[in-house]
Specification:
InterPro entries: Ribonucl_H, RNase_T, RNaseH-like_sf, RNaseH_sf. Its EC number is 3.1.13.-. This is Ribonuclease T. The chain is α/β, with parallel strands linked by helices.
Length: about 220
Amino acid sequence: MSEAIARELMAQRFRSFLPVVVDLETGGFNAERDAILEIAAVTLTMDPEGNLIPDATYAFHVKPFTGANVEQSALDFTGIRLDDPLRQQVALTEAEALGEIFRPVRKAIKAHGCTRAVLVGHNAAFDHGFLNAAVARCGIKRNPFHPFSSFDTASLAGLVYGQTVLARSCRAAGIEFDNSSAHSARYDTERTAELFCAMINRYKDLGGWALAQREQGIEEQP
């Protein structure tokens, strides 16, 4: 399969949307009030056999926006130390972090012949809500992500594996998961990307995608 065919299949597979896996670590559960502390994204692509695979990872520490709330319980849960000198040295503002994520996402959308990104997340509504709130705070006009559509790997894993917790879902899919590394945006995003790809590819290998193509009248590629 050529790169052109893989590009065409990616554009067809999700109705011209490019799935991009996103995870955020936050200072609480209120997207309007609580800070984003880490953000990570993994772009996806297709291999020559038409399997969905992780492509590139982008991960950043984020400075709490002015007036943001950060619950101590959230810091205890994630293990994030706001006073860590290394973190303070590399952390970006929300606007800077979103810019660093959105630029390669836009490039990936164009490279795969897609029109927009669709957020993939484990309990996606949580990450999507925080992302949209940050976009609004920063006054960003060109958000590459669909404003409300998303793919939730917790729901998909419940269907495929009977598991909804990320660690258990990964293990059910044969993906190693280190609990001590969890709740880092980079680690959780990369494992979620592997999980999403595993489920999409399993469906393809079982013949479900080929059947869906035939029912929609989509011509299968050689």
